[in-house]
Amino acid sequence: MTDHFHAALKSGAFPIAVSLPRHDMALAEAARDAGADALKLHLNAYHRASGTTFGSFEEERPFIEAVASLGLPLLVMAGQETVPSAGEMEALADLGFEGFNVYFAHMQPHLLACRLRPMPAMADTSTEADLAEMNALPGAIIEASIVPFSAYGTPLDEADLDAYRAIAQKSAAPVIAPSQKRFVPGDTARLREAGIAGALLGVVVTGDTPDGLHDAVAPIVQAARQMRH
Hints:
globular, 8-stranded parallel barrel, two-stranded antiparallel ribbon, single chain, alpha/beta
């Protein structure tokens, strides 16, 4: 199991991953140039925040192979009710993908048998029992997708930090926070103080143009790197 992203989370480096709002090499290159520590792609999903529909592994394979050539750690949101086959998950591992992400309700046994690290996502409806089951998955990374859709794009507030803190305190696995709230550079220190191990920047922060993505991601990456010294 390739471990660059997980190792960065465990080391306290507070890595910044970028979730691409659509499969476009200009966006992927902008994220790389802004200093992103990892990229996240999507399969088999309608992404509500960006309004983008992502296809199957075979449909998206040309883009997946192109992104793999960038040399960044790669993560994949594997799908919803439909997910890649066992063979397709192995192909993703061969292409250098490190982790796969699904909402916990969509986890399937063959996913847990693959070489990619599980990144189960909590929803705003997840319970403490759900979190305990996620923590029982060997090598898991927890994605705390706990903000209701009605609050997307609003500033990070103390209630959010309290919620993240409660999850991190109960979790043996590293917890990452996706930017359902509109994260800004100063939020990196606030998130880390709350026990969050890294951030995943999506369309709420990045927008959907290469220049906009670069300009949003670069200062957040810089703030995270300043915390490492």
